[in-house]
Design a protein that fits this description.
Layout (H helix, E strand, L loop, with lengths): L4 H9 L31 H8 L1 E6 L7 E3 L2 E3 L1 H12 L4 E6 L5 H6 L5 E7 L2 H4 L3 E2 L8 E6 L9 H7 L3 E4 L4 H7 L7 E4 L2 H9 L5 E5 H8 L5 E3 L6 E2 L2 E2 L4 E5 L4 H15 L2 H8 L16 H6 L1
Length: about 300
């Protein structure tokens, strides 16, 4: 299973795309080529997968998005994608481990058919690959002591209570806290998620700010804490949805479109979505709004 230090990198990358609020990560795709190896096989790609009986998926070993536990591929993306591909007549996911920055280059090179890693949808990535419609959003939450003694619900309540809030170093949550009017002296920087949990338990901070997804996963091993209901923060009046999706090779539009049709059935059914993904910390608050479209996200 992936370690939480990976999530500090993910917390920066995965929330780099907000509706109308793009944070560019320079050089992220410097290794990606415009040449689309294997794109010529795009027509009939789904038929090919059905005939061979499996789909090759790449994962980055980052819990709870996509990781190997023993010999089993688990996490949000593999669980959702397994359900979708079974509905499409492809019964098996064959996993390939990749470093995060190698996911899209490997896809372009034809090493696998789909990236199943909960990757954020950004214009830079859209220039090099095809994204599904959003399969989740990453609303923010607060980790607090068990019982929530300060009765915190969101950043406005944290400001009103004058509490100290912890954020990850290099992550976007610091800007959310500042945007909500929390004084810099009340914002403490931590190096990794477990540091945040420890600071809450030790009383050094009153709340730890991160995605609800990551905090719910973290709370599994920190029972002295609890996580508030997730909320969508705003920066300059723009909601920060931070959506992620499956990634396909350019030229495989038919495969992407077939995937999207089955994905829509799941995200339109709250009980089904939650039953599939609640094990990994995803709930109704992570279901993408119907108005949130990849075409718009790719434009920036």
């Amino acid at each position: 299973m992936a370690d939480f230090p990976h999530l500090s990198r993910r917390s920066f990358l995965n929330r780099s795309a907000a509706v109308g609020g793009l944070l560019v990560v320079p050089g992220l795709l410097s290794a990606c080529s415009k040449t689309d190896a294997g794109a010529a096989d795009g027509e009939g790609a789904l038929d090919k997968l059905r005939k061979q009986g499996f789909v090759r998926v790449a994962y980055a070993n980052e819990a709870p998005y996509g990781y190997l536990e023993g010999k089993e591929l688990k996490g949000e993306a593999p669980t959702l994608h397994r359900e979708i591909f079974k509905a499409l007549g492809v019964d098996e996911l064959r996993p390939t481990l990749s470093e995060w920055d190698g996911l899209i280059p490997g896809l372009q090179a034809g090493k696998y058919d789909v990236v199943s890693a909960g990757m954020a949808i950004t214009p830079e990535r859209c220039a090099n690959a095809l994204f599904s419609e959003p399969e989740f959003i990453s609303p923010t939450a607060l980790m607090v002591k068990k019982g929530n003694p300060k009765k915190l619900t969101d950043l406005a309540s944290a400001k009103a209570a004058g509490v100290t809030v912890g954020v990850m170093s290099g992550a976007v949550e610091a800007s959310y806290a500042k945007g909500a009017g929390i004084a810099e002296g009340k914002i403490k920087t931590l190096q990794k998620p477990q540091d945040g949990a420890d600071a809450v338990k030790g009383g050094r901070i009153d709340a730890f700010l991160l995605t609800g997804i990551s905090l719910r996963w973290l709370a599994r091993t920190n029972p002295e804490t609890e996580v508030t209901e997730a909320f969508v923060p705003e920066l300059d009046g723009v909601q920060q949805f931070s959506p992620g999706g499956a990634v396909f090779r350019q030229g495989n539009e038919d495969l992407r479109d077939s995937f999207n049709r089955e994905l829509k059935k799941i995200v339109s059914d709250t009980s089904r979505y939650v039953s599939l993904l609640q094990e990994y910390g995803f709930g109704a608050t992570e279901i993408p709004p119907a108005t949130l479209k990849t075409a718009d996200l790719c434009k920036g």
